[in-house]
Design goal:
CATH topology: Metallo-beta-lactamase, Chain A
Number of helices: 8
Number of domains: 1
Helix content: 10-25%
Distance between the termini: 34 Å
Oligomer: single chain
Radius of gyration: 18 Å
CATH class: Alpha Beta
Largest sheet: 7 strands, mixed
Number of strands: 17
């Protein structure tokens, strides 16, 4: 079975506080979340990874099933399958989870605009229909509930043009690929539709959340001085100590830093494979006449 690292459950005092459990995927450095309302035991899954071996183009659902097994052991009823954006470095488990659980899946409404970009990149004009593959396409300012917990949706573009943040209860925000941990800075903004300028604005909006708000990030790879992965820090910690933006860095300086850093980064090794599926909620392309599904990889495009 694929190994996942489980964080201790993160709790904050108060009736409107979410109980958060993080699961770390070593292969991609991704963090997956199980978010629960302690009052009702209703829960949501956020950014769950379906393991994908790009060398053999094969998937493995054992780690996803392990997360579902954990939720069952904890007595949690999952009522939402949430993603923050179409991920470039891992295959999303949204479609598989919907089939297993029968509850709705959701992502940001601007996934429709992202899909138009990738229609052109793949030369597949009819390949992606987010309104068909996702039950809810959330807009900025939308709200819903996990049990008794209020959830607010914030549009947080930069890493992609349609990334969204889920603010759950009064002290938890799932901020995907915006911030990294304070000692690691911020996420890249150089994919199609990305923008370092917009990322700066999104980070500033997140820093307006209350100081005690726990920010749960999408990725961590450790640092030279911190070998173990981590994925939680408060707004106050980021405002004071984030190595890219803490202490009041100007937009001009941030954009120069972020753009320069992005020029040194290679594409994620799964990106061209998994985006074809993530824009379909993680589903493989329709089988061809031999019963197999095939991925299309653009040559000399990136």
């Amino acid at each position: 079975m694929k190994k996942i690292k489980l964080s201790r459950t993160s709790d904050s005092a108060g009736d409107s506080s979410a109980q958060v459990t993080g699961f770390y995927d070593h292969d991609t450095g991704s963090v997956q979340y199980l978010v629960a309302d302690p009052q009702t035991s209703k829960a949501a899954l956020i950014d769950v990874v379906m393991p994908f071996d790009h060398r053999s183009a094969s998937t493995d659902n054992t780690s996803v099933d392990a997360i579902l097994g954990f939720a069952e052991t904890e007595g949690l009823e999952i009522e939402w399958i949430l993603d923050t954006h179409p991920h470039a470095d891992h295959l999303m488990a949204s479609s598989y989870l919907k089939e297993r659980l029968g509850c709705p899946n959701a992502i940001g409404a601007k996934v429709k605009d992202i899909s138009k970009l990738w229609h052109e990149k793949y030369n597949m004009p009819d390949a992606f229909d987010p309104e068909q593959d996702f039950d809810h396409l959330f807009k900025d300012g939308d709200s819903f509930k996990i049990g008794t917990l209020d959830v607010k949706v914030m549009l947080s573009p930069g890493h992609t043009l349609g990334s969204i943040t889920y603010v759950v209860g009064d002290d938890a925000a799932f901020v995907h690929d915006t911030f990294m941990q304070p000692d690691a800075g911020t996420s890249r903004a150089d994919f199609p539709g990305g923008s370092a300028d917009e990322l700066y604005d999104s980070l500033q909006e997140l820093l307006k959340l209350p100081d005690h708000t726990r920010l749960f990030i999408g990725h961590d790879y450790g640092t030279e001085f911190r070998k173990e992965p981590a994925w939680e820090a408060t707004v106050q910690q980021h405002r004071r100590h984030n190595t890219h933006i803490g202490g009041g860095v100007s937009k001009e300086d941030f954009v120069a830093l972020r753009t320069g850093r992005d020029k040194t980064l290679s594409l994620p090794d799964r990106m061209l494979h998994v985006l074809q599926m993530n824009l379909r909620a993680g589903k493989a392309p329709d089988p061809e006449n031999d019963g197999n599904s095939y991925l299309k990889i653009p040559l000399n495009t990136f």
